Amino acid sequence: xxxxxxxxxxxxxxxxxxxxxxxxxxxxxxxxxxxxxxxxxxxxxxxxxxxxxxxxxxxxxxxxxxxxxxxxxxxxxxxxxxxxxxxxxxxxxxxxxxxxxxxxxxxxxxxxxxxxxxxxxxxxxxxxxxxxxxxxxxxxxxxxxxxxxxxxxxxxxxxxxxxxxxxxxxxxxx
Length: 174
Fold this sequence. Notes:
The protein is an alpha+beta fold and 174 residues long. It has helices at residues 9-24, 40-43, 55-62, 96-106, 135-147, 154-171, and strands at 29-33, 47-52, 72-76, 79-85, 110-114, 121-125, 128-130.
């Protein structure tokens, strides 16, 4: 049973198919999958799409030198709601990977990144990035998100941001 704001197994299949097809030809992509925390402030920065997810749609959106290829796609349920979204939390977040981690720190979303340089697929969740993931790992994380039924509180998000900032400071030797 798929809840109102969750997504179907077909959507998972289409996301995986698109990501690894784009990876093979080194087409960069940033796909943010919304969970319970609505990402309306990011959706508003992009162009409304409101289309059912298909691998062909995602591949077409991220095709180089097309009007929609820059920025992130926001997925809500089984639909692409917006493209060319700006997910940067600060001006320092230039790369897709940093943008993915940034949005995962302030929401309960899962973000898929396809590297334009390497073609490798990574995901960001809960302020952490998992690099060079295979299709089975990605499917497992998408299934987890699909079936998760938890309220993420603002306090938990603030705690996550604080702990991740503390780790970053320790890594810099501060």
